[in-house]
Amino acid sequence: MDRTALVTILVDLIIVLKQGREPATVIKAALPRALVPYYPIAGRIVEPAPVHRRSPTPETACGSWASVDCGLKDVNSLEHPLVLSKEELLSFAPPEVNEEESIFMLQVCVHFACGGFAVGIRFSHTVFDGLGAGQFLKAAAEIARGHARLPVEPVWCREAIPTPPKLSQGHPPSVAFCFETSVFDIPLDHVSMVKNQQCSTFNVVTTVAWQCLTRAIGLQPHVDVHLGFAANARHLQRQLLPQEDFYGNCVRLPHNLCLFM
Question: Where is the signal peptide (predicted)?
Fold first, then answer.
C-alpha cells in the first residue's frame, strides 16, 4: 500500500490525559529513545523513480506546548465536537515542507489548569496503521515511565509482504476516501433488545446504525449497500509475519463487501 497514493494521508489523533508532571519535558526526552528501535519513523517519505515506490529518509518532528487558564471539564475533555479548534491542538508542518512527506509529528499542545494535558499527533498512514502507531506510542510511554525494556520488540520486515501485480506495475487501485464524523450514543439496553447469542455487540450496533442511515437517505428498496470498516488482519498473515509485533500497515481492501438490508 505504501507504493501507491492510496494512503498518503496524515491521521489526526488527540490524546487527553487527566494529569502528568512536566509532560512536555518527559515526552521530549522519551521520543528520541523510542525512535532508535523504531528507526523508520524517524524519517521522511520521498519519491524516487518510479513514482509508485516510496521509502523513508531521516527526519521527524516534535513540537512544544502551551498552557490555558481552564480545566478539562470546561472544554468537555475535548470530546467531539471540539471546543478548541483542531489547528490549536495538532502540529502542522512549516510551509516549506510537504506534509505528505511527513511520517510522524507530535506536540504536547495544551496544559490545562486542572493538571491535565493534551497531546496532538499526526502520523502517516503510508508507514503504519492505527495498531502500529499505538505500538510505537506505547513504547515511548514505557520509556517515559522509566522502563529499561520495551513492552514488545518492534518488527518491520515489510519486504515479507508481497506486492499485488497491479501495484508492482504501477497501477494503484481507484479507491478514494471521504470521511464524515458522526457521534452516536447507543445505550446498552437498546443493544440488548436486538442482540442474541449468535450476534456480537459490534454486529448489532453496526447493522442498526447502517439501517437507520440508509433509510434516512431514502435509498430505493433492494439496493445493495456497501459497508467497509477497519479490522486487524495480522492473525491472517502468520505465514508472512510470524511475529505479532509488526507495526507497519496490515490492510487488505475487500471486494464485494456488502450488507444487505
Answer: 1-20
C-alpha cell at 62: 516534535
C-alpha torsion angle, residues 254, 52, 239, 227 (rounded to 10) = -10
In the CATH hierarchy, which top-level class contains the domain 10-159?
alpha beta
Q: Where along the chain do its domains lie?
A: 10-159, 188-259
Pairing between β-strand 104-111 and β-strand 66-67 as defined by DSSP bridges: parallel
Q: Please indicate whether residue 113 or residue 162 has the higher confidence score (pLDDT).
A: 113
Asked if the bond preceding 173 is cis, omega within 30° of 0, the reply is no
State the pTM of this model.
0.76
CA gap 137, 35 in Å, rounded: 10
pLDDT of 2 > 70? The answer is no
Average pLDDT, the chain: 77
CA distance 23 to 117: 8
